[in-house]
Amino acid sequence: MVTYVPLSVNKRGRDMVIVLWTMSAVSAVFLGLRLYTKVLRRRRLYWDDYFILAAWILLALSASSTTANVRRGFGQHIFEIPLENLVDITFGVLSNISGFASILAVACSKTSFAITLLRLSDGWMKWFIWSLLILLNTSHYLSALFFWVSCNPPAKTYNRTLPGTCWPDYVSRNYSFFVGACSAFSDFALALLPWRILLRYNMYNREKIGVAIAMSMGVFAGVICIIKMTTIPLLYGDDFTYESFPLVVWGFVEPAVTIMAASIPMLRHLFKSLRRDGDLSTTTSGLRTAQSTTNQPTNRRQNFLQNLRKHAGEKEGDDGPTVARESKADLEKAVLTSNGKDSATTAAEKSGDDNRSDSSILAKVQLQGTSSACPSNDKGGRGVFMSKLGKAT
Fold first, then answer.
1. Quick one: which of 33, 192, 46, 208 has its CA closest to 111?
2. pLDDT digits (tens, 9 = 90+) for 258-291
3. Helix, strand, coil % (nearest 5) of the chain?
4. pLDDT digits (tens, 9 = 90+) for 11-28
């Protein structure tokens, strides 16, 4: 009979569950935005999308298995866990499933980004990426398999009460270090390759750096992998249910961060769409303001003359119509002399303002928006790369 341990008692396990499901939720947001961008652009899913979707499903499976084991006491000191929970076969099966799914999630998430780069590269870089894929997947799939076959009989891997033998700890530990080294090397290599690819294209530095940074977020996964490697020995201690907390957390954070990093390059299309909609809204508002402005009187000379006529009319009641007419004529003459523009020029300016159309304003805005673009005759330049990047993402 299994005894469930409350999270209020198992505080270390509670923290583990919070981290796992928080990272699952955040990575799900990035993945969802990535897939939404594909739908928005009416692009079909490619192999990199299927791999990253599989990575998240495996991540959720790992989080679910770990959560179930936390309810059984995982996260506490081994002597605090009820004995019936430790000898229960479910405890060992859930532990194997958690580690198995977490390692496969790492492999699938990094394979996804490597496939994206394959569509942008050629020559020796394509062969190099294929070599990374073979190394990465072979090492990780074997590591995941060892969770189930490292003992004889294999059932002893999840039921330690059975008679039999298992591989020495140093074999599993050393191979885990090797897998971690392969993973970290792949992360840094895949993060640097976009910079090498972009060197071949004639693009402005700001644009080139922006694209390269967006495609190099995997470097954070490499750093996390190195941190995870420092916690591997904790799995082989006498109190592994308590001490393995950092290994479980970092082993889960690594694929979650990789999913986010691999999705960022695809999100640039969504950001561009939102920015374009914002610019269009601003332009429309400006057009409405311009239309309302052109409908108002713009000839200050006429306004001033109206005020003068009003002033002259007031004098007519005091001094008689003769004085008013003379005063009015003198003032109009003075204004005409000091104006500096004849009536024909003023009329032409007003006509030009009134005849300005929405299409001319839009044309000006579009011209300003494209003034910083790269020259259209750059061979192998921005247009070529953006076309390949658009197809790949």
1. 46
2. 999 999 888 876 766 666 655 555 655 555 655 5
3. 75, 0, 20
4. 999 999 999 999 999 999
In tens, the pLDDT along 91-106 reads 999 999 999 999 999 9
- For 294, the enclosing helix (H) or strand (E) is helix 245-294
More confident residue, 363 or 205: 205
Domain-ending residue, one of 318, 338, 358: 338
- Domain match, 142 and 68 both: yes
* 128 and 188 in a common domain: yes
CA distance 194 to 183: 18
Q: How far apart are CA 377 and CA 79, in angstroms?
A: 73
Q: Tell me the C-alpha distance between 90 and 4, whole Å.
A: 13
Q: Is 312 inside a domain boundary?
A: yes
The pLDDT value recorded for residue 309 is 59
| Res 211: pLDDT | 74
CATH of the domain at 64: 1.20.1070
CA distance 392 to 55: 19
* Residue 263 identity: S
Q: Looking at the chain, how many residues does it have? A: 393
Whether omega for the bond prior to residue 233 falls within 30 degrees of 0, making it cis, is no
